[in-house]
Amino acid sequence: MADKTKKAPTKAKAAATAKHPPEGYFGEFGGRFVSELLIPALDELNAAWKKYSNDKKFQKELLGLYNDYAGRPSLLTYAANLSAKWGAQVYLKREDLLHTGSHKINNTLGQALLASKMKKKRIIAETGAGQHGVATATAAALMKIPAHVYMGSEDLRRQALNGFRMRLLGATVSGVGGEHGTLRDAVNEALRDWARNVDDTYYLIGSAIGPHPYPTIVRTFQSVIGREARAQILKATGKLPQAVFACVGGGSNALGMFYGFLKDTKVQLIGAEAGGRGLTPGNHSASLTAGKPGVLQGALTYIIQSADGQVQDVHSISAGLDYPGVGPEHAYLLQQKRTEYVAVRDKAALDAFQELAQEEGIIPALESAHAVAAAKNYISEMRKAGKKNPLILISLSGRGDKDVQEVERLLALPQESEQPEDSTPATQFSTAPVVKVVAAGE
Questions:
Q1: In angstroms, what CA-CA distances link 97 with 52, 181, 271, 357, 399?
Q2: Domain residues of the chain, as ranges?
């Protein structure tokens, strides 16, 4: 009897832990897997976040920046021509119309304001497509804090205009990772910089990735997208959409959009990942569609890795989706079956890029074009199933000015032979590795 009495609390404690995971975790995903050198800085950031995220003066100051500087609320646009062509009611949430041209400004204004409250003397950031870099340089200039942005060399080639824009705004820009450097290399270099200069430097992460509390901070700043979109579409149509679409790289734009509809369980939330040339090693960036659990840059999430756990090279025509992992909250939401993810091929994204431009006079970012392509395919499948005229909402995370030259180059190339249709099985969560739980603040 004594043994049984001892075992009961253990089971109860385990059940409580499962129901209420440690701070910084989303179910089994998230956490802090970083050098001990960074733990004090993360604790300092977490304490500041808890203080200012609940501070009414901070919230009022940030709202003023959103409304009077960034241009919020962003518009909701009814895409009449696409709607008629596709046989649906298609609405676009226009983050592309914000200052700097994307949703990234929502996060950088919030974090730069936080950095100023923490009296940091320097801001560093990583960037893929350059939109986060431009938004960081913009916010840093506004706050009068020097900025240093790391960008993969290949991304800097593809997005040379954004590289110049950052320098024009006063930021130092470093190309990293050698000839083929991408977002992963930029994050790694930023983390090294932060470890060397941890006392006076604020690392302004651009997506809902990395160690706690970054995934929560970034998602919270981006959740303004979904809150606005939900109210706007109810006002425009009197009802909620059947499905909401957003592209997913690290996943901040998608989380921001999805958060407005999480409790509306009849609304499908669909993320569009980069299917690239096909779901074979080195040809895609679809972490949730074809990845496995693992630790990447400070968090346990789904990543693209080899059988022996090595992070693999990835590919996408979109520099902003060219990343071998995803934010841990996306992994959790998929595990809970609240969200769905599809892999969109390069060609489909290119076609959607052109179609939106020609039908609506809107040139989307290549990242956003993945979401447009996913929505088009969804509507086609609904029509085949006899479901007509669905109400669809798409997040246009950014504008395509940055991509025009690269798209022109790609369209001039000989068409690559496509791989057969993907037959990768759905992501399985029953084989997640056993890892030590490192709770935030420990």
A1: 28, 29, 21, 15, 7
A2: 34-67+104-217, 71-101+220-412
